[in-house]
Amino acid sequence: MQPILADAGLDPEGLREALERENERSLAAVGVSPDAFDLPLATHQARTPRWGRSAKLALERSLKVATARDDRRIEPGHILLGVLQAPVGTVPRTLEGAEIDGAEIVNRVETALDLAG
After folding, report:
1. CA distance linking residue 2 with residue 4, whole number of Å
2. Tens digits of per-residue pLDDT, 26-74?
3. Cβ-proximal residues to 64 (8 Å cutoff; 6+ apart), any chain
4. 34-43 as b/e, with b when 16 or more CB fall inside 10 Å?
5. Which residue, 21, 25, 29, 80, is the most exposed by fewest CB within 10 angstroms?
6. What is the C-alpha separation between 32 and 30, in angstroms, rounded?
7. Which pTM value belongs to this model?
8. What is the pLDDT of residues 64-102, one digit of tens each?
């Protein structure tokens, strides 16, 4: 799945940059400049990671995708589809801001899953 994202301009560095731009746009929408704050990076990590609501929803969508395809297990492609199918939030805004066609990525991931299955 990584080549699909990289081909769309979302290699790890491209993804970080796109997310940073989205974060800046979101802050600007409420009149906040990220330069106004000198916040340290979070260093504390819980021993047991906690799943946020959006992550749980993405996994639920992943399960629905796998089930609809009659796949026997959830693969990385199913999870990527679960993330990409978020109707609102950071993911669709980030893709839009990076001028990346999310529907095209979804089609390519579905094709890759078909070929792998």
Report:
1. 5
2. 888 988 887 777 766 656 666 787 888 999 999 999 999 999 999 999 9
3. 82
4. eeeeeeeeee
5. 29
6. 6
7. 0.80
8. 999 999 999 999 999 999 999 999 999 999 999 889 999
Q: How far apart are CA 47 and CA 105, in angstroms?
A: 34
Token couple for 8? 């769309």
Amino acid residing at 55: A
Tokens of 6: 């990289």
With tokens 């906040």, the residue in question is 32
C-beta separation of 80 from 109 below 8 A: yes
Q: State the sign of the Cα–Cα–Cα–Cα dihedral 50, 19, 91, 33.
A: positive
Beta-carbon count within 10 A of 99 CB: 8
